[in-house]
Amino acid sequence: MMDKLIIFGGTSLKGEVTISGAKNAVLPIMAATLLSSGVHNLRRVPRLRDVFTMVELLKRMGAEIEFKGNSCSIDTKRISNFEASYDLVKTMRASILVLGPLLARFGKAKVSLPGGCAIGARPVNLHIIGLEKMGASIVLEEGYIVAKANKLKGTTIYFDIPTVTGTENIMMAATLAKGLTVIENAAKEPEVVDLANYLISMGAKIRGAGTSVIEIEGVNSLNPPNFHEVIPDRIEAGTFMTIAGATGGDILIKNVKAELLDAVILKMKDAGVNIKETRDGLRVTGPKRPISVDIKTMPYPGFPTDMQAQFMAMMAIANGTSVIKETIFENRFMHVAELRRLGANISVEGNTATVRGVKKLKGAPVMATDLRASASLVIAGLIAEGKTIIDRIYHLDRGYEELDRKLISLGAKIERIK
Ligand code: EPZ
Fold this sequence. Notes:
With 418 residues, the chain is of the alpha/beta class. It contains 14 helices and 24 strands. The chain has a 4-stranded mixed sheet with strand order 22-23-1-24, with helices on one face. Helix 6 (164-174) links the parallel strand 10 (156-158) and strand 11 (180-184). The protein is globular, with a radius of gyration of 21 Å. The protein binds ligand EPZ. Ligand EPZ binds next to helix 1, helix 5, helix 6 and helix 12.
């Protein structure tokens, strides 16, 4: 479990890499299988820790699940347990995504409160308020959300913050509610759209996914489609773009939808990274030395918070000073202290990090604290001269499928030690 990665940095990465299915699309889609009885066939499912946690969660509810490579079949004909217990939820906050589907289909759910995580308190109050407005009665008992609903009713729900999983939870619940549900200030992430497409293929009536107003007309029941192919992971794609940009590399990134990465691509180009769309994918070539660029994380289609730590690693060796503002989470700079150990010159004031580019980083032992921070340390290790040892890389395995294997195929000197 306490695997480590050893990286000998300083080489430019070259070659091609195929992006896996999106973690943040497949997790809500797997929860959505609870909305209908039948066999759901999902393709391009990334084999990563959070997916296996969701598999375990659904199995404990009675689902029968089979994996063949990156295809996964989920049989939800015999769901008999409506609980998501703390031991699983504490390892993956996205478990909260079963709340809406369980309430909508079975009228009851007992889901552990996620508890905090490294990047912030991450409350789920907006999920709960939304479901209560749809008629659910929800109490908090011994760390659990205990919810009941005879029949959820459509209504208009305004989100103070465009919460991604909050939007997904309410959208899923609304598919089987009575009448029309309107979500205002909804999250517009591509993963919300992929979930909506999956629900529509099951017979749901949804309009406006991808915009800030989503309308869902409740139906009596849903049925699984023949299959669903999960969209590519735009954050994994952005991570490999950053690796090419930071190591002066030349990488062909396949299975990526460039139109979902506009903000990232524009900032990369400002940093001197060359990005060309070819019929095989995105050809990304890094400059000799990146140029410092300011970024501010925003809800989609703004610069994604899930790319902030990776971009900061590239800015650590850029020419100039980069100001990085994190507006989504209150504590998403855990990677700063670790990057400093590699020689980065970064100062933090509240939610703003100022990165003064240095000529080079030097390898050292560092520790991963959360998923994207660990990706940031991998990028910094690939840049740094000498040996970098990254501890606690189970964080990395939560959100990246075989990242070390993909990096080795691009020429990285990297090995995993148990
Ligand atoms: C999703 O988390 C993603 N996870 C996160 O990716 C991503 O960083 C985040 O959206 C923002 O894009 C999945 O999709 C599984 P939010 P989510 O609800 O839905 C506050 C990764 O690295 N908020 O959009 O939990 C919250 O505290 C992960 O793959 C409330 O206050 O994020 C945060 O400040 C990390 N009350 C802001 O809203 C609520 O009820 C945005 O959170 C819900 C959220």
